[in-house]
Structure formats: C-alpha cells, structure tokens
Amino acid sequence: MHILRVISPAWLILVLDSCNGINGFGYSKKEQHLWPQKYDVCAGKLQSPVAISTSKAIALPLPALEMVGYHDFLPTPQILMNNGKTVKLTTDKTAIHGRLPYIFGAILQRNQQYEMEELHFHWGIKNNRGAEHVLNGVRYPMEMHIVHRNMAYSNFSHALRHEDGVVVVATLFQLQDEDNELVRSLISELPDVQWAHTKLSVNISLALAFLIPSNTDIFYTYKGSLTTPPCSEVVTWIIFAVPVPLSFRQVNTFRKLSNGEEILGDNFRLLQDIGQRKIYIRRLDPSLWTKDIKRDDSRLKFANLSWFWS
C-alpha cells in the first residue's frame, strides 16, 4: 500500500511505504551479511568500499579529471530526498534546460563522458565513523558520492548493465569548529526532509565544486561496485585524497534525520576485500617520468591500464 500526500505550499511530497525500506536492506552487520541472499552480486569479487593505503597504491601521472559544469550552480529545481537510507540530491530532468555537469579524462576511456545522476551522503552517529572508504587507516565521519552515468547509455538502469557504466566521484569530510559556508545552502534544507521517505523540490544555489576539495590534483581510482544493493560491479571509483571540512554543527544536522524508526546514520557498508584489484593514485611527481618516456608519449595509454594483478 502506498499513500501519497502532497502539500503544495512547500512542494513537499511525503510517501509512506508499507515495505521495509525502499530496497529492503539494512546497515547493521547482520543485515549486511544478508544482502547477498537477495542480491547475489553483493558477494562478488569487485565490491566496494575498500581500504586504501597510499603506500600500496600505484602512483602514476594520470591525466586530470575534467569536470565540466562543476563550478556552475546546479540547474533548478532540484529534488532533495530522505529515502530512509541517505539524503539524496537530484535534478528534475523534466523541468530543466541545458546540460548537467559531466566528467571525462583521468583513467576513463577516451571519448567517454559521464553525466551527473545524483549525489548522496554516508555518515556516522559518532565522529570516528561514517565514511565508507578508509584512507590510511582513518575512517572519516562522512563521505559524499557524486554518481555519474556513461552518456553512451540512455539511462542509469541501462548503464548498470555495462562494466563501464558508472563513475562515482567521492569526497571525504573532516571535522572543524567553523561552518563550511559553501555548503550552508544545502544543509539548511535538511530539516525539511527530516522524516524518512520525504521529497522536497528545492532551488539550492549549489555548485558541485562546493562539495569537493579545491585541490583535486591527487585522487585514487579503482574498479568496484555500488555500495548498496544491487551492488552492481560497474563502477570506476575516483576518490579525492584531500578531505573537505565540515563543522560539528553541520554534521550533526545530518544526525537529526530519521530513517523511519530511529536516527538515520551509520549508513556505511562494511569494508570489502580488495582481492587482486589495483588501486592507482594520480601524482604529478616528476620522478615518475623516465628519461625515455615523456608526458605526450603514445606508450602512456592510461585508459588501457590493467585494473588487476596478474
């Protein structure tokens, strides 16, 4: 049974669903161990998130990640949703004109562009946890994912059927005393989606560049999966090495949200085995260049690098 209530003055849509969550999964250790029973790919060998070690990552002078439209305000209206698992921000594609932000470059195949689909957050109830990826033994209190679809595929469902279908750009957040003014416009809307399964049409003055570090020169990249069911193993991960600051007060605003039964938080997946996968780190250290190989050398076909140890 689905009940739809529309409160037009606030453009608020409240959806009460009788099922246990939108995708019927939970984040407790016991519930996560049950994911593969319903979504067998969740037991695959290319699962995310993983622990990242700078000393073990393979350093390469990869091309920059080109981010087109990241410094422009997102088209409006946007849709802000508490789906009971996370807070998600999307654009209303039926109501906007012009192109959404997109990315290319880095280790991605030449001539492939990936358009933003949505962004969402993972956070902890306590300050010592929340992010999904662990960097050099540190689990930050929050992680954000900007999900992009390969524009060669007509929609996100189609993209999930192809190994090059999705790129997720991830930001880690660290705590500070002062508010991050760049994200104030987004966080100020969160109380209006406090309750689970609440959607709000918003006009937030927000650029994706506000949600990523100013220094994007260094990033990690590897082949993995969605971190929620169906855990599709079609994701190229790009994780910035430099965290973005958020204040204690701003993170606590996320912790006031509800998942329908209790506080929404600790919505991060357990670490997965990296297995035979390689993790690359982009570095522009001149020592990475040999006297025989120059930056424009045709032998540097980064898009054809192996993602796995042989």
Automatic annotation (TrEMBL):
One of its GO terms (cellular component) is cytoplasm. It holds the Pfam family Carb_anhydrase. InterPro entries: CA_dom, CA_dom_sf, Carbonic_anhydrase_a-class. The keyword Lipid biosynthesis does not apply. Transmembrane segments: none annotated. Gene3D superfamilies: Alpha carbonic anhydrase. Residues 1-21 form the signal peptide. GO terms for molecular function: carbonate dehydratase activity; zinc ion binding. Residues 23-283 form the Alpha-carbonic anhydrase domain. PROSITE patterns: ALPHA_CA_2. Keywords: Signal. It comes from the Eukaryota. Belongs to the alpha-carbonic anhydrase family. This is Carbonic anhydrase 9-like. It comes from Temnothorax curvispinosus. The gene is LOC112454783.
